Each structure stands twice: as structure tokens, then as C-alpha cells.
């Protein structure tokens, strides 16, 4: 299995039988190396409804007939637009043919802005624990630091954690280091930084300070074999 990073919060998981995308913000994301018009995906996992996370979900899901798994209100909205969306909620888990998905807490906002400026409430934001082929990947989502991250670390044997470091909209590097201690993943990868000037950070400096697990600042398109 290969897990790769593609800028902002975009993560791709390639298993023996499925390609899974987290938060596919591709078009309009200069840091992303993927092509929304050609990328193949069987599953899209969404942490919340903000446009820089829903991204190209509509186009990718329709072209690939992909399943979209998202928080309840967001999933219902996507279903109303013709997508094959499965609703979940924080604390819930489900076994799919591609792996097990569990939604965790995240402290953030969640709304989708349509092209005409209409703002749609997206339900509660979340993190996502994906267990596939015996490995667990934790996409923490957009969040502040909160103590239940320690609980998630204690309850799960996490192989890779994708943790936001951008600050301003999410936790910054100092809080993310605490989160990494609590989550206790084998590998810690920083995400949600340098997409916009307000979230500019030094990922190499962050990973050099990671105290628990191995910090890896993945270059755009770079992956980890699990």
C-alpha cells in the first residue's frame, strides 16, 4: 500500500484494489500535482465541507462513479447533487469493501460556498481514521488542539498521522507537536500549510522537532510504502 501527499490536505491511498482520496482540493491549488480531469478514484473521504477540502469531489466522483464518505449533512448535500454519498457522523465507524472508516472529533467549522455565493451548512467537521490492509491512517482534518487526541492515540495503533500545522485556521506547529505526542503515530506528516500566505510554515523545521514517532515532511507527490 502506498500513501502519498499532494499539497494542502490532499492525501491519496493506493491499495491492492482501490484508490482512496482524502479532501481532493486540486483545481485552484497550485501546490497540487494531480489532474482533476484524469485522476482515478474509487473512494473519496471528506473531513468537512469547506471548499478547499471538498475541492474537485463533484467532478472526480461523477467521472469515476466513486463513493463519497462524508459527515452526515455534507453527504446529504452531495447526494442531492447526484453523487453516491454515504453519510457518517463523529464516533461512528463502518466496514466498507475498501476498509474501515471511523469519524473522530475535530474543532473547526464546516460550510460549502456554491458558485452563486450561497453558503450551505456542512454539519460538524471531523477527522478520519482509515484502517486498510492492516494499517491505520489518521487524517486529523482541520482542527485545533484538543485533549481527546490523546484518547484516539491510546485507542488506536496509528501507522501514519496527517496533522495540520498551518496555524490561523488550524493548530500551528507548536500545538501540532503536542498533538503528535498524543496521537503516538509511527509516522507524522504535516499538512495544511503553504497553500496560502496566511498559513505559511516550515515543514522541515516541524518534523525536526517531532518527539513521538518519525516526522516526515513529504514533498508534493511523495509517498510512503506501508
UniProtKB/TrEMBL annotation:
Gene3D superfamilies: Ribonuclease Z/Hydroxyacylglutathione hydrolase-like
Superkingdom, taxonomy of origin: Bacteria
Entry-linked SUPFAM superfamilies: Metallo-hydrolase/oxidoreductase
Ranges where the Metallo-beta-lactamase domain occurs: 7-192
Bilayer-crossing regions: none
Keyword Hydrolase assigned: yes
GO molecular function annotation: hydrolase activity
One Pfam match: Lactamase_B_2
InterPro entries on file: Metallo-B-lactamas, RibonucZ/Hydroxyglut_hydro, UPF0173, UPF0173_UPF0282_UlaG_hydrolase
Keywords: Hydrolase
Alphabetical list of PANTHER family matching this protein: UPF0173 METAL-DEPENDENT HYDROLASE MJ1163, UPF0173 METAL-DEPENDENT HYDROLASE MJ1163-RELATED
Family that this chain belongs to: Belongs to the UPF0173 family.
Name under which the protein is recorded: UPF0173 metal-dependent hydrolase AFL42_04870
